[in-house]
Design goal:
Length: about 425
């Protein structure tokens, strides 16, 4: 069975996250997005863990679904599977430097989660203040501790390239997985590429040939679920089946990842947000890595770090790698087609109508015939915009220093002609 997996989301208990992020709503939105398997997020948080125990029941070994009392049996979200995945923030010293690394941790059962949480609480880590808690523990030591509790637990470095909190981050990361994970490196089966990098950029590092690249949403709200995702062909559903695909880098099962255009991510280029300045890695070298206006150090983005650590062109290995497809979120496409802001009511209405009546978001973006979309959309520009994104015909002003990139699908004077009735009004 083909399934779409999003392994990194947050709950209402994580900082800066929507209060709507509760399991029944997450399941309903996964159905709308086309996500079949989603991480629970935040399982170290006592409030969220109680919510998981209240609403989830094991459906296949190591996978969970909502109890019938939590969602009507015929609701689309009732078929969504949950995997126990969370994010932990490690801040510690290693090699004489302060390191800040975010890691995703997956567990095979609620019982294992309970034991991990008890052990972390015993060590006096504060699990209550945030769904993504800060643990002052070395990433290698953390992974050892988790494996001692249950050897089926796996750890995956999150958004591996972002400057501030990532294994390869320019501010407080490492230059290789070995440097960060030491003896535990062989058990790091995957890294999350993050929104600001795509697989092609990661292929440039021979050091990453031994891991598989995964892509997830890191959603802080319902409508950001599935911003990026993984598409798999899985015969029998189970926690171990997914871990095996990662461990063996099984290209028969792992069909492709769904990606943001990396320029859209908020740390793609180098820059200074305060001065609204961004530049390429080459330009920032020329500027001696300082903002030309305020003279403070530039935040070096993902492209810069990849450029620094890369040891080959990506083309050399493309054919041996798991492929990917690039998308722009449907709400952004509709906003562009309508020429209005992405948060506007009209965009939301059209989004809900199309995903309710025609197909889920991933199908609309990648598969649904354009004629079908033209027939159903309230404006022909929506189908035209989707067709342009599918063909990669768009312009993106790249993100930098915490500011998201902005997508432009239609250039000046490039909007498709409206039907006569509408232009007459
Ligand atoms: Zn993170
Ligand atoms: Zn500046």
């Amino acid at each position: 069975m083909r399934c779409v997996v999003d392994w990194h989301v947050h709950s209402r208990y994580s900082r800066a996250c929507s209060k709507q992020l509760e399991l029944p709503a997450i399941a309903a939105w996964c159905a709308r997005k086309g996500i079949n398997v989603v991480a629970t997020g935040d399982w170290t948080h006592p409030g969220w863990f109680a919510h998981l125990k209240e609403h989830l029941v094991e459906s296949e070994p190591g996978l969970y679904r909502l109890k019938p009392s939590s969602i009507p049996a015929d609701a689309p979200g009732s078929r969504v599977r949950f995997m126990l995945g969370t994010e932990l923030s490690q801040i510690y010293k290693r090699g004489g430097k302060v390191r800040r690394v975010h890691n995703l941790v997956f567990a095979p059962s609620l019982e294992t989660v309970e034991r991990v949480n008890a052990e972390l609480a015993r060590r006096n880590f504060n699990l209550k203040s945030d769904g993504r808690p800060i643990l002052g523990i070395d990433s290698e030591d953390l992974y050892k501790l988790l494996k001692d509790i249950d050897e089926r637990i796996i750890l995956v470095p999150a958004h591996a390239w972002t400057p501030w909190y990532a294994v390869f981050g320019s501010k407080s990361g490492f230059d290789s997985l070995e440097e960060c994970f030491g003896e535990m490196t062989p058990y790091v089966y995957a890294i999350e590429t993050g929104l600001s990098s795509d697989p092609k950029m990661n292929w440039r590092l021979s050091g990453l040939d031994r891991v598989v690249l995964i892509s997830n949403s890191d959603a802080h709200s319902l409508h950001n679920l599935g911003r990026e995702a993984n598409v798999m062909e899985v015969r029998a559903f189970s926690y171990d089946a997914f871990v095996r695909i990662l461990r063996e880098r099984d290209r028969e099962a792992f069909l492709y990842t769904i990606e943001f255009f990396p320029e859209e991510g908020k740390y793609h280029l180098d820059g200074c947000a305060a001065c609204r300045f961004s530049c390429s890695p080459w330009e920032s070298k020329h500027l001696e890595f300082r903002c030309p206006t305020c003279k403070r150090p530039l935040t070096l983005g993902v492209e810069h770090r990849v450029e620094t650590l890369a040891d080959r062109p990506s083309e050399a290995v493309a054919r041996q790698k798991i492929p990917y497809r690039s998308i722009v979120p449907l709400e952004e496409i509709i906003a562009e087609a309508f020429g209005v802001g992405v948060g506007s009511k009209r965009v939301r209405q059209e989004y809900l109508r199309l995903t309710g009546r025609v197909a889920n978001e991933f199908d609309l973006l990648l598969e649904t015939p354009l004629e079908t979309i033209t027939a159903e959309a309230s404006d022909p520009a929506v189908a035209e915009a989707i067709s342009r994104v599918r063909a990669g015909r768009l312009h993106i002003a790249p993100g930098y220093d915490g500011i998201y990139g902005t997508v432009q699908i239609f250039g000046e004077g490039d909007l498709p002609a409206k039907p006569a009735q509408q232009t007459l009004l």
